[in-house]
Design a protein that fits this description.
390 residues, mainly beta, 6-stranded antiparallel beta sheet, 4-stranded antiparallel beta sheet, 5 helices
Length: 390
């Protein structure tokens, strides 16, 4: 370590920083012990933000084998590598906490929201640093289902958890709802009143630039000359600044209840909508966030991927090759080539025929759950003139 420190001491600051930014989180956690200046650098909000921007995106999945749950990380651009899937150690104060009902409920800036025992216990967890924080009890009493979101309030440098408590009637429509928001900074819940929409998609949110998004359904009306109820597609996001839900404009089409399957995803940082009605299987992408006219149909799903039930397909990520990684929920991964309309199933070394739960994207990061260290900083004033030793 001393030899490395001495060599690094003579490097220009931009070279030293560039070298450290290329290292994985595991190595950087060790190198914090080299000297005080390295510790300050690696823990600084500026360095954390810069390292995050360079980090490789992965997927995390809850897997089950013989009734045992484990959380695994998958490097989807190296699916043929024997180390593509790695089991992660989820523990609280050194004690394993996984159960048969563990769920991944949200992902933001390398942090994950984990629910245990039917989500009676909620945890924020950084799988890269192994830091974990249990949330206080969520003060809901009656609920049929809960919808979750994890996001980042940049102005206050605070990570927040949104919980929407839905009570639905026999027709599946929401008859009452409540919204609470947890703040990591204050370690407390805040009640925000009723959820403003009648119903929504009962899956975890997707995250765009720290903001959680969900599918929701606007008011229904009866279509003329038809027995069908028509609902307008809605995409809802939670604005941490105003503490209000806002609508994100969707593509210009209508869909019919019980005849359409919709899902949200993120492809290369863009909001993505998967859509099926009748024989049409389409992928839409919002090229410029918030601009309704920027929605474009990326492609129609054709060829061999059509053999899979569409409602069980979850579009995960655009790979470096241009192919799309798709998860068949509860089973396996496939890689879809939209240019040739072909797909192939992939066997990830280390999977060992485990049943796959819902998968989420995440990035290895140095974001801390302790005090002000979770802050993302600017890239100005990263270091003094040189990196120096003790």
């Amino acid at each position: 370590m001393n030899q490395i420190s001495g060599q690094m001491r003579d490097l220009p600051q931009e070279v030293a920083v560039d070298i450290l930014l290329r290292l994985p989180v595991k190595s950087l956690l060790r190198f914090r012990c080299v000297c005080r200046s390295w510790y300050s650098l690696i823990c600084s909000p500026q360095f954390v933000a810069m390292h995050y921007k360079r980090a490789t995106q992965k997927v995390i999945v809850a897997t089950e084998r013989s009734g045992n749950i484990s959380l695994c990380s998958v490097d989807y651009d190296a699916v043929n590598n024997e180390n593509a899937m790695q089991e992660l150690d989820f523990s609280v104060d050194g004690n394993p906490k996984l159960s048969k009902s563990a769920e991944i409920l949200g992902s933001c800036n390398g942090l994950l929201l984990i629910g245990l025992y039917r989500n009676s216990f909620l945890y924020l967890w950084n799988p890269s640093t192994r830091e974990c924080k249990e949330l206080p009890d969520c003060p809901f009493v009656e609920h049929v289902c809960r919808v979750y979101g994890l996001g980042y309030h940049s102005r206050f440098n605070d990570y927040k958890v949104v919980v929407i408590n839905l009570v639905v009637d026999g027709a599946g429509l929401c008859r009452s709802s409540d919204v609470l928001v947890y703040s990591l900074k204050t370690h407390s819940w805040k009640y925000l009143g009723n959820f403003p929409y009648r119903a929504m998609h009962y899956v975890p949110s997707i995250n765009i630039d720290g903001v959680p998004h969900w599918l929701m359904y606007c008011e229904e009306h009866e279509e003329e000359d038809s027995d069908l109820n028509v609902a307008t597609l809605g995409i809802s996001c939670f604005d941490f600044e105003s503490e209000l839900f806002k609508e994100v404009p969707g593509p210009d089409f209508e869909w019919h209840n019980n005849q359409t399957t919709l899902d949200l995803a993120v492809l290369q940082g863009c909001l993505c909508l998967t859509f099926i009605r009748g024989g049409n299987r389409e992928i839409w992408v919002m090229k410029e966030y918030g601009m309704k006219e920027s929605w474009v149909k990326l492609f129609n799903l054709m060829g061999s991927i059509a053999q899979y039930p569409f409602h069980r397909l979850y579009f995960l990520a655009l790979m470096k090759s241009g192919d799309i990684l798709v998860q068949i929920l509860g089973a396996r991964f496939v890689v879809y080539d939209p240019s040739k309309n072909v797909c192939k199933e992939i066997v990830i070394p280390g999977n060992n025929n485990r049943e796959l739960g819902l998968t989420m994207l995440y990035v290895e990061s140095l974001v801390s759950l302790r005090g002000e260290a979770h802050r993302f900083g600017s890239m100005v004033g990263l270091l003094p003139s040189r990196v120096t030793g003790v």
